[in-house]
Amino acid sequence: MSLTTFIVVLNASLMNVAIPTMVDEFDTTVTVIQGAVALYSLVTAALVLPAGTLPSRHSIRRVLTVALIVYAGGTLVASISWNTTILYLGWSLIQGSAAAVIFPLTFTVLILSYEDDDRATAFGLLAGVSGVGSTIGPIIGGALTTYASWRWGFTLQLVGVGVVLFFAQYVSTNPLSETPSSLDKGGTALSIVGSTSLVTGFLLSGKYGWLVERRPFVVGEMQFNPFGTSPAIWFLGVGLLGFAAFVQYERRLERAGKSPLVPLHVLTNRPFLAGVLTYNMRSIVSAGFFFIFPVYLQAVLGYTAFETGVALLPYSLASILFSTVTPNWRKYISPKTLIQIGIVCMGVALVLLYEQTGPGQTIVRMALPVALYGAGVGLILAQITNMTMSAVPTAYSAEASGVLNVSYSIGFSLGTAVIGSYFLGRFYGSVVDGVLRAEHETVSAEQRNDLVIALEDAAETATDATQQQFLNQLTPTQRQLLEGIFEAAMFDAQRAALLLLVLVVLFLLLASTFLPRQIPDADDRTDLPESSQDSPRETSETAVED
């Protein structure tokens, strides 16, 4: 399961590095290729909740095998894609659908396979492997894109899938329930609407604004900006209404004696919800950090994709070390305390990086705060997944896993939207302000906003060739002036974004206060209603013994 997670995480980080090369090869724009990345996230978020319940109705081994085969099929299609339509089909739709099954299934298998300290160690190792995959992905992707082809990144994943399929024989063949229920179609539809709308709203917010229209939103030939508002607020509203309707629908279904997609006692389990909230906010911080930091390293400090991976290597080593070594520390220190220590480590690391931000920053100087950030992540992930999943009876681990992964998807898209849009907005605004100061010009706030949007649009569509063509038209003095403005703007944006991340970390620390002191034991799970104590699902506990 760790190798499966590694492959899926590696896949996402490989794509981000290859975007410029793919733009040239497909003769398209950055926006179109980034659309494939966004659609992948959208498909995964939309399907992860219903997909997470599959082990309750089908053989766990069969679900894993089919998901891996579908994933391999999408990988093959993406690797041979001859246009963006085929790329969207293979990478965004097919691979995204399979990833929606794989992510929650990983948690379910570990819950069934291990208990107590072994389970905590397993989840810690899984977290460490995931961190390594996201870090070395740019290194592998950069090397393959530079010296061979981005297509080899997909091809190598097929080898990994083949290895996982061999080891799939050790996964339990039993479903979680001996009397599988039919799929809750209404709950599935509402969960898809809620997840899709929320993630879409977050993705659109950076470019089109959160509330007021920043620029026209046009689909085909139709503009959608009701009352001068941004489309993001409408998608977010539909998403929240969708999830509210989902909870009400699940409540009515359970009262009617039918099987809901997610039982109410899972949604109202306080220790579980506290863990979901903490997990969600941690994903917001991670998404924001891994958006701004690589951009800063490459755009300002001039690092290559390989050097960026080297700079993040202390994070990988520290996260995998602390996530695998510290699970047993709960014998001496409360898991809640360990999580809060990890949160503090993340905050201190971000403050240190803020103080270092400047022309003299080097890989060696960054090593300590980057490692400290990784140690904090390792301490959190070593406890939070096990604590959250252990709060729910094993028979309902599939549903709990789906909910946890939905919270991660939403948190990741929210972190990218909030931190990313703030970072880029601050950068483009600082560039405009710097040029205006250099030219001794003053403009109104509305004119300044128009200039910022125009610069964003120009930068988004410009290729390396057009950028070089523009620079060749400038005098050496003008070029030097612009380089200084760009550098100062990026330093300013990096500092501002790091401070915003520190603020989110403080909210994360606040959210962690709702966590239970200890990981719940099986006998302490009192949120399971008495009516379900004799549920046929309880007989699925034999799957653990198998």
Automatic annotation (TrEMBL):
InterPro entries: MFS, MFS_dom, MFS_trans_sf
Pfam families: MFS_1 (PF07690)
Boundaries of every Major facilitator superfamily (MFS) profile domain copy: 1-519
Transmembrane domains' residue ranges: 31-51, 63-82, 88-111, 123-144, 150-168, 189-211, 231-249, 279-297, 337-354, 366-385, 406-424, 496-515
UniProt keyword list: Membrane, Transmembrane, Transmembrane helix, Transport
Subcellular location as annotated: Membrane
Protein topology in the membrane: Multi-pass membrane protein
A cellular component annotation (GO) from this entry: membrane
Top-level taxon of origin: Archaea
Chain positions covered by the region annotation Disordered: 520-546
Name of protein: MFS transporter
Lineage: Archaea, Methanobacteriati, Methanobacteriota, Stenosarchaea group, Halobacteria
